[in-house]
Amino acid sequence: xNVEMTSDGPxxxxxxxxxxxxxxxxxxxxxxxxxxxxxxxxxxxxxERVRKYCIGCPAYGKKWSCPxxxxxxxxxxxxxxxxxxxxxxxxFGGVKNKEYIKVRAMNAILVSLSNQIGRVMTIMxxxxxxxxxxxxxxxxxxxxxxxxxxDRFYQSLESTGIDLVRTxxxxxxxxxxxxxxxxxxxxxxxxxxxxVLTNLDEGSEYFDKLIKSFDIKPKEKSLDAWA
Length: 227
Fold this sequence. Notes:
Blueprint: E1 4-7, E2 18-23, E3 28-39, H1 47-50, E4 79-88, H2 99-124, E5 128-131, E6 155-156, H3 164-169, E7 176-177, E8 187-198, H4 204-212
Parallel strand pairs: 5-6
Antiparallel strand pairs: 1-7, 1-8, 2-3, 3-4, 4-8, 5-8
């Protein structure tokens, strides 16, 4: 599951730079967003600790984008354009059954949007994409053979060893990994985080314009317009 859950807590600030509306088959939801241009050394990187949580995932040891053989955070970049999107769990208040169904629904919306935005931002910032979830460029990864599309390949932030919980806490944003056994946890939002490693000190204008093109209010634009 790629969605992190935000819970009530001492770091529960949810300041948004803006919001858009998206529709699904059954409802309209509000997606809030924020972003920061940060020096790479702001990131809390702890591969030994973070990557152990990947063990047990179906993609572990089966993709170039996943541990144990994927890259640690790539060098040669001075900054990261870090962005995060979230949905208020109240937008799924009518969903029946268990909390897990709400997480699945938020996952479907947020991960798709985050990765589409991330791919375009990577072009704009001449950077390297760190997305949500494992690489899905190819239907079946060539691992352990050589990657077939290295120019389009991407990893998740966590797979590079970035500790998102501690990094986002430095930004006053509290993350709590969803778990079926954590029934006592008061989940309030579903959150997805993406990033683009870059040497450019910009990106805000690109991001604001891009994400607003996904709003249901104006006529939606194709990604081809941004390529």
